[in-house]
C-alpha cells in the first residue's frame, strides 16, 4: 500500500528497504529477512505500481557465487535496479565492512549478470557504510569517499554514502565522489542538520528516506490505539483521523 501511495503522490520511483521489511514482519533483526522473503515482498511491490522499483539486495546474500543467483532472482521479478552494500550483516552492534576489493568484484559481477540477462539499463547503487565503521570520523569519511569512487569505477551507477551527519560532510562527499551520490536524510543523527532542499542545492543525486514511512505508519497505529484505549472515539472521529474520507482509499485503487 505504501508503494501505491508513493506513486500516487507523484514520486517517480520506489526504493525497497530490507530494514523496513524486517519491521513489517515483526523480526528482531534485518538479517532475519531471508532472500526468498525479500524477493517475494519486492515482487508484490513491483506488481502494485507502474514506476521503477529499486530492490534492497543487502550484501548480495553471500559471496560472489551467491551474488549471481541473487541478482538473477531480483531481475526476474522486474526490478529496475538494486542496492548492494559493503557492510557485513552479522547482526552485531558494532558495524564492520567487507574488504573493498571483494565489494568491487561484487559490483562488477552484478553488472555482468545484468548485462547477460539483456538488462542494459539496470541500476546498481553501491552502498558504503564505511563512515560508521571507525570511531575516527574524518578517517571514516575518507574511507567512504575512496570506496564510493571505486564502486563507481567498478560499474555502479551511483553510490550511497550512509551516515552523513552534517551538511559539510555531504558537501565534501559530493565534491570528491566522481559520480552521482545518494544521501540518507531524516535520520535521528541528521534530521536537524539539513533539509531535502539543502541536499538538492548541494548536488545530491538521490535522497534516501529510510524507515520514514514504516515509522510514521507505526506511530499512526499507536496514536489510534491510544485514542481507543482512552475511549476518545468521538473526538478521534472529529479530528478526521479515524475515517479520513474516500480520497485515501481512491489512492489505493
Quick structural overview:
By secondary structure, the protein is an alpha/beta fold.
What does this structure look like?
The protein is of the alpha/beta class. It has 2 domains: 2-210, Alpha-Beta Barrel (TIM Barrel); 212-253, no CATH class. It is 49% helix and 11% strand. It contains 11 helices and 7 strands. It has a 7-stranded parallel sheet with strand order 1-2-3-4-5-6-7. Helix 4 crosses helix 5 (100-116) and helix 5 runs parallel beside helix 6. The protein is globular, with a radius of gyration of 19 Å. The mean pLDDT is 92.
Helix content: 40-55%
Do you know the CATH architecture of the largest domain?
Alpha-Beta Barrel
Q: Return the average pLDDT rounded to an integer.
A: 92
Structural category is alpha/beta
**What Rg, in angstroms, do the CA atoms define?**
19 Å
β-strand amount: 5-15%
Record field, number of beta strands: 7
Topology as a string of helices (H) and strands (E): HEHHEHEHEHEHEHEHHH
**Broad CATH class of the largest domain:** Alpha Beta
Amino acid at each position: 500500500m505504501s508503494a501505491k501511495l508513493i506513486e500516487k503522490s507523484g514520486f517517480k520511483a520506489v526504493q525497497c528497504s530490507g530494514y523496513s521489511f524486517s519491521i513489517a514482519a515483526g523480526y528482531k533483526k534485518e538479517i532475519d529477512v531471508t532472500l526468498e522473503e525479500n524477493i517475494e515482498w519486492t515482487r508484490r511491490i513491483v506488481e502494485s505500481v507502474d514506476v521503477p522499483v529499486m530492490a534492497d539486495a543487502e550484501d548480495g546474500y553471500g559471496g560472489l557465487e551467491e551474488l549471481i543467483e541473487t541478482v538473477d532472482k531480483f531481475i526476474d521479478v522486474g526490478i529496475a535496479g538494486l542496492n548492494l552494500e559493503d557492510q557485513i550483516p552479522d547482526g552485531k552492534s558494532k558495524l564492520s565492512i567487507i574488504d573493498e576489493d571483494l565489494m568491487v568484484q561484487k559490483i562488477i559481477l552484478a553488472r555482468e549478470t545484468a548485462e547477460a540477462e539483456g538488462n542494459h539499463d539496470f541500476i546498481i547503487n553501491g552502498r558504503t557504510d564505511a563512515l560508521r565503521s571507525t570511531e575516527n570520523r574524518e578517517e571514516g569519511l575518507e574511507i567512504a569517499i575512496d570506496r564510493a569512487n571505486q564502486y563507481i569505477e567498478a560499474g555502479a551507477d551511483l553510490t550511497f554514502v550512509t551516515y552523513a551527519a552534517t551538511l559539510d560532510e555531504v558537501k565534501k562527499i559530493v565534491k570528491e565522489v566522481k559520480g552521482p551520490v545518494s544521501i540518507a536524510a531524516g535520520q535521528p543523527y541528521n534530521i536537524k542538520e539539513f533539509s531535502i532542499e539543502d541536499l538538492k542545492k548541494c548536488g545530491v543525486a538521490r535522497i534516501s528516506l529510510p524507515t520514514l514511512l514504516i515509522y510514521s505508519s507505526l506511530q499512526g497505529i499507536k496514536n489510534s490505539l491510544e485514542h481507543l484505549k482512552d475511549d476518545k472515539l468521538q473526538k478521534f472521529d472529529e479530528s478526521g483521523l479515524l475515517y479520513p474520507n474516500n480520497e485515501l482509499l481512491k489512492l489505493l485503487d
